[in-house]
Specification:
Length: about 190
């Protein structure tokens, strides 16, 4: 289909709330094209998840897919392609974990973000079938990051910097000083 340009920090589309879709809409050619565009764009930019607002479409659609060999998130495991529409999160374990997150819409930066470590996500898939997945660890963080996009929230909004801490870094400094040190701090 098509590689789309990713909206970056400062573009108001990233701050808009998104609209849910009906099952008939999900099965329409327009939404099937949107899903394919999300896949093509994510692959081109090297992401592990992308939400529709990031390609300037304010609908509650996002995808997630990553492999062991992800260049941006090496060693974080793998997860097959998941298309999640109208998703809702339920926290199953509110103990928080933190990972250094990045975002295709905030290029060149990483930030250490704490989120609940175990969640359930209820959603409709690309055929409008109801699905449910329980996620923990890094996968739980990826889901929460993508779902935040659907509510106009970016990871930089969630950084709680303690005095003297450096929890926002350029990619190069992240790799030099922080990679591997604290990707799974639990608190
Ligand atoms: Ni993002």
């Amino acid at each position: 289909m098509a590689i789309r340009k990713v909206a970056r920090l400062g573009n108001p589309v990233l701050r808009k709330k998104t609209r849910t879709l009906s099952p008939d809409e999900i099965r329409s050619p327009e939404i099937q094209h949107l899903i394919q565009d999300l896949r093509d764009t994510q692959a081109e930019y090297g992401g592990i998840g992308i939400a529709a607002p990031q390609i300037e479409v304010p609908l509650r659609v996002a995808i997630l897919e990553f492999s062991e060999s992800s260049a941006r998130y090496p060693g974080m495991g793998a997860h097959p392609l998941t298309v999640f529409i109208n998703a809702k999160v339920t926290v199953l374990d509110s103990h928080e974990q933190s990972f250094w997150e990045g975002c295709l819409s905030v290029p060149g930066l990483r930030g250490k973000v704490s989120r609940p470590r175990k969640i359930r996500v209820d959603y409709l898939d690309e055929n409008a079938e109801p699905c449910s997945i329980t996620a923990e660890g890094f996968l739980a963080t990826v889901f929460q990051h993508e779902l935040d996009h659907l509510d106009g929230v970016l990871f930089i909004d969630r950084i709680k910097t303690a005095p003297g801490a450096t929890e926002l870094a350029f990619t190069e400094e992240y790799q030099r000083f922080h990679a591997g040190s604290s990707s799974l701090d639990e608190s």
